[in-house]
Amino acid sequence: MNMELSRRGFLKATGAGVAATSLGAMGFGAAEAAVAAHVRPMKLANTTETRNTCPYCSVACGIIIYSKGDVRKGEQADVVHIEGDADHPTNLGTLCPKGAALKDFVQAPTRLKHPMIRKPGSDKFEQVSWDVALDRIARLMKDDRDANFLAANADGLAVNRWTTTGMLAASATTNETAWTTFKVAKALGIVGFDNQARV
Amino acid sequence: MSSSSGLQPDPSMIGRLVKPAFALLPDPPSLFRQRAERFAMLAEGHDLAPYLSFLGALAAVQADLAARPPAPTPLPAEQVERARANAMPPLDRAALGASAGLRGTIAQFLEALEPVDMPAQAAEALRSLRQAPPSVLDEMIGNVMGDAIPFETLAQHLFLSAAAQVQAARLAATLEADRLVPLDTGLCPVCGGPPASSIVVGHQGAEGARYAACAFCGTRWNEVRIKCLACGSTKGVGYKSAEAADDQGGTAVEATVKAECCDSCRSWVKILYADRNPSLEPVADDVASLGLDLLMQDTEYRRAGFDPFLIGY
Fold first, then answer.
1. Residues B219 and B115 in one domain
2. Where is the FdhE N-terminal domain (chain B) (predicted)?
């Protein structure tokens, strides 16, 4: 803990309005005033540096996201740069070419931000609400499972197999998310499944 | 044949991750030489040119003194090991303050400063310091060792701090960097002092790592990025930098000196991005970025970096 804080606070208080600075005491008050005049029309800009995890693969490299603006100060924060986190034990600041291009991934105009549907016969995707998307996915899953679920194998042994639907889950997930995803997929009997929990 | 034909691929240079060294000990002559050069470079066309030039001359004197024999006696091995075992700083500031070696360095330093051009106030402080009775000097040295500088005699203490920096850096250089242990967030692992500023380095093997820089002994030590160096909090850390009021943000060059502000303890420490500007020097650029200090005075944050050349902000 850096205890210099309290001493400096004391120093300022005892100064009681007297400009007690190194420059003043050494006779460089004019230079100090010049700097003060120079910065008077300037303002302080907020920037932020935020730790996160690269979303691409299950190595889960640490990254630092640099933004202009600070959300905590009620500002809009725009991502200006992303680089590897030198303090992260996995990658020690390094990134693969895909990770190094993350800023373009974040700002890509084609980035998927909402559920999209391409209806049968259509040649384009349309945005739909999460309710619509989840209802439709659940409906299709239920129909497919009801039609193709295997409750017993060739020997008549009871099994839990649903081989006609597969699932590919995200890589940048926590252990808990991966565990839950695995339980959902396996409880339904999904055989074709890949997920972070494999790693 | 061209020289490039002799180049052989060296797979060991890629794909190997090196953990950044915990501490970088100073090489005193080059530490002060580089600081002097950086001060001289910064002084060109700078509002603060007179002060920067003066500190450049001061650093040049420090560099000469740091190379002058005899080298100080290394710190006792027993003391270093005891400090290591108990996570205490191996350089005992109280012992340094009481040492005859420091007094010798101070006398040499003050004498070597005679030809340096300085304002009347500084010259007067230097003269009073050279004539100060031992008891007064002892008290002032105690203040320097405690980083507690009384504002009435800032100028005298500035000279003493500069002399102590030489002695402390020479003692720090006698230690083994890989035998140092972290003490606590924001504390120099050699002398226990606070950092003047911190610097994000770009040198091979430590790209993007942040080192806090001690103004007292010149040691740099690794600290996790995006963490307050005053209280150790990683919550609510933001960065502030000066920009022109009419700036639209479009073409502005990203600042390479910023204030790392902590909303937990309301303090801030300068952070220098040497990965983008390798010329940055933790003490010289701390002084040269005085404008940031002046702007930060109007915020709710207090400066937590300690630099004897920049007190009172």
1. no
2. 21-183
Interface size, chain A vs chain B, as Cβ–Cβ contacts under 8 Å: 194
| Residues in A touching B296 (Cβ below 8 Å) | 44
Same domain, B164 and B267: no
Domain that holds residue A99: 47-107
First-to-last alpha carbon distance for chain B, in angstroms, is 60
Does residue B14 lie within any of the structural domains? no
Q: What is the pLDDT of residue B208?
A: 92
> What pLDDT is recorded for position A199?
55
Domain count, chain B: 2
Secondary structure (3-state) at B64: helix
- Asked if residue B274 and residue B185 are part of one domain, the reply reads yes
Residue B266 included in any domain: yes
Number of domains chain A is built from: 4
Helix, strand, coil share (%) of chain B residues, nearest 5: 40, 15, 45
Radius of gyration of chain B (CA): 20
Whole-number Å distance between alpha carbons of B164 and B265: 30
Specify the CATH number for the domain of residue B91.
3.90.1670.10
Q: Which CATH number characterizes residue A52's domain?
A: 2.20.25.90
CB within 8 Å: B311 and A45: no
With beta carbons less than 8 A apart as the criterion, state whether B284 and B270 touch: no
Interval B46-73 mean pLDDT: 94
What distance lies between CA A60 and its chain's CA centroid?
A: 11
A27 touches B at CB < 8 Å: yes
**Residue where one domain finishes, among candidates B143, B177, B211:** B177
Asked if A134 and A119 sit in the same domain, the reply is yes
For residue B312, is it within any domain? no
Q: Mention every residue, 6+ apart, whose C-beta is less than 8 A from residue A85.
A: A51, A61, A62, A63, A64, A91, A93, B208, B225
CB contact under 8 A, B241 and A73: no
The reply to whether B308 falls in a domain is no
Q: Is the pLDDT of residue A197 over 70?
A: no
Do residues B228 and B264 lie in contact, with contact meaning Cβ atoms separated by under 8 Å? yes
- B237, B285: one domain: yes
| pLDDT tens sequence across B166-204 | 999 999 999 999 999 999 999 999 999 999 999 999 988
The β-bridge relationship of strands B210-214 and B302-303 is unpaired
**A74–chain B nearest CA distance, Å:** 13
Name which of B26, B89, B269, B54 is nearest B159 in CA terms: B54
pLDDT tens for residues B228-278?
Answer: 999 999 999 999 999 866 555 444 578 899 999 999 999 999 999 999 999
**Cα radius of gyration (chain A):** 29
Tell me, what's the ipTM?
0.85
Find the mean pLDDT for residues A133-150.
Answer: 96
Q: Answer yes or no: is pLDDT of B90 > 50.
A: yes
Mutate to test the interface with A, among B53, B183, B290 (most CBs of A within 10 A): B290
